[in-house]
Design goal:
The protein has 454 residues and is of the alpha+beta class. The protein has a single domain, classed as Cytochrome p450, CATH 1.10.630.10. It has 16 helices and twelve strands. The strands form four sheets. Strands 1-2-8-5-3 form a five-stranded mixed β-sheet, sandwiched between helices. A three-stranded antiparallel β-sheet has the order 4-12-9. The termini are far apart. The mean pLDDT is 90. The site of protoporphyrin IX containing FE has 24 residues, from α12 and α16. Protoporphyrin IX containing FE (HEM) binds next to α12 and α16.
């Protein structure tokens, strides 16, 4: 990879000039819609303006690989500094270069496949609670229920299973994180966060409540007799045995890494499951085939970890949902650290670069009937086959920053969806699909279903 200065004679990518406020408003209302419109009007690489900087969106697998892998060292993940001390240090997702490599190495052990498989019971216990709340003859808001489920799974994984917290706190942490992220692109945010507004107070109260359970969890983990499998225990042990490269020496550093994981991993599983319920309910043929497989393998009993390999159609549904409606429909933005070239165009230093995964995964050159939801296309496909950006598939991102929790997420999806559809019918109350968030990952608002006995 050349490090020579880039010629500034190169053209800028095509795109609308000006329209900053319109772009910012559309991003806040319908980010995915904005990306689809830019792709339709300007092509595979588009430069557009936002109030704080120029943005570039790329819509092919090859360009995605350039940004996320080949030229990764010049495109660092952009996370504006936290406005509320939610995260005061870098953590895995926000770090870059050697810092990221060191954290990733530590996390490889923290998220090792074997360790994740050992978490099956933790997920199954939380599925029991989910199923108990989604009993037949009720109407429920699935996004609400799934956020509660995802929050509990992540809390158990990250903090350990001891703290029993008000589930409301989970919802508040999620909205605090999103508010914090969105403030990053708001002008005069320094003034906004100081105003005595209810949302500022809510974020600070939420953080205080979360700190009140996190610091005791860190203290517990320091006890040499403690053998917890949670992420905090892993970080504390790594720092104690000297293999953390000087990281996680203070409680605040451990807390920040833990919060990073807690916040970053809740939305995507909720998105996958909500879209799963929507798409299965809207495709009676898919629902019929899934019910048939569940009847065959489970009969009348609840799902167990050993069933997973005997449910190929459920696995195919998961892969197809990740293609058709990827929870991370736009990868977290990368900031160009210097002038770079993408697709023959100049990308000026400071440009926020976004990969439109949703558009890439519907490209007809990669997928037959790309706009059709067809789980059957995955039957017989080995794990890992054709799962690269250049094949038009990248729901879990790309190395060196690929998702560490893919195995855990697959279990959350399979256990929850199988349990919901085994003996019940979920009928969405509206024909409207779930709404996307404006941060590139997950769903928002309400998604109500009526639950019947099957
Ligand atoms: C269906 C569910 C999920 C999807 C679609 C998903 C997707 C992604 C994507 C696209 C990235 C790359 C982001 C980037 O390039 O900036 C990522 C990173 C990551 N994910 Fe997930 N994720 C899911 C669930 C989870 C879960 C449940 C966990 C934790 C148990 C998790 C942990 C992580 C971590 C730690 C990273 C950062 C890796 C790094 O920067 O080195 N994810 N995920």
């Amino acid at each position: 990879m050349s490090t020579r200065p880039v010629s500034t004679d190169l053209p800028l990518p095509p795109g609308p000039r000006g329209r900053r406020l319109r772009n910012a408003t559309k991003r806040a209302r319908d980010f995915q819609g904005l990306l689809e419109e830019l792709h339709r009007d300007y092509g595979d690489i588009v430069l557009f303006e936002m109030p704080t900087s120029p943005w570039c969106a790329v819509f092919t697998g090859d360009l995605a690989r350039e940004v996320l892998t080949t030229q990764e060292q010049w495109f660092r993940p952009f996370y504006p500094p936290s406005n509320y001390d939610l995260l005061t240090h870098y953590f895995l997702q926000t770090s870059h270069g050697d810092d990221h490599r060191r954290r990733r190495e530590i996390m490889l052990a923290g998220y090792a496949e074997e360790r994740m498989r050992a978490c099956a019971n933790l997920i199954l216990d939380n599925v029991d609670e989910l199923i108990g709340r989604c009993s037949p003859n009720r109407e429920v808001d699935m996004i609400d229920e799934l956020e509660r489920f995802s929050w509990r799974c992540m809390l158990d994984l990250v903090l350990g299973r001891e703290p029993k917290l008000d589930p409301e706190l989970g919802r508040n942490v999620l909205s605090a994180m999103k508010q914090d992220l969105l403030l990053g692109i708001v002008p005069f945010k320094e003034v906004v966060i100081k105003l005595p507004l209810p949302f500022n107070r809510r974020v600070r109260d939420t953080l205080k409540a979360l700190d009140e359970v996190t610091y005791p969890a860190i203290e517990r983990a320091k006890d040499p007799a403690h053998d917890g499998h949670d992420l905090i225990s892993h970080l504390v042990r790594t720092a104690a045995d000297g293999s953390a490269h000087g990281l996680y020496e203070t409680d605040l550093e451990v807390r920040d890494e833990a919060y990073g994981h807690l916040c970053a991993a809740i939305d995507a599983p909720v998105g996958a499951l909500t879209w799963g319920i929507h798409l299965v309910a809207r495709h009676p043929d898919v629902r019929g085939r899934l019910e048939h497989e569940l009847d065959d393998v489970l009969g009348n009993r609840p799902i167990e970890a050993r069933d997973l390999r005997r449910l190929p159609y459920l696995r195919a549904i998961f892969r197809e949902i990740l293609r058709f409606e990827p929870p991370a429909y736009a990868m977290p933005a990368r900031e160009a650290l210097e002038d770079r070239v993408l697709g023959g165009y100049l990308i000026p230093k400071g440009t926020m670069t976004i990969v439109g995964a949703h558009v890439i995964q519907r490209r007809p050159e990669h997928w037959e009937d790309a706009d059709e939801f067809r789980p059957e296309r995955w039957l017989g496909v080995e794990a890992g086959d054709g799962m690269r950006p250049e094949d038009g598939y990248m729901p879990f991102g790309v190395e060196p920053r690929g998702c560490r929790g893919a195995g855990f997420a697959a279990m959350m999806f399979a256990f929850a969806l199988a349990s919901l559809f085994r003996d019940r019918r979920l009928e969405p109350l509206s024909r409207r699909p779930p709404s996307r968030t404006n941060i590139g990952i997950g769903v928002r608002g309400a998604y109500k279903v009526r639950i019947e006995t099957r």
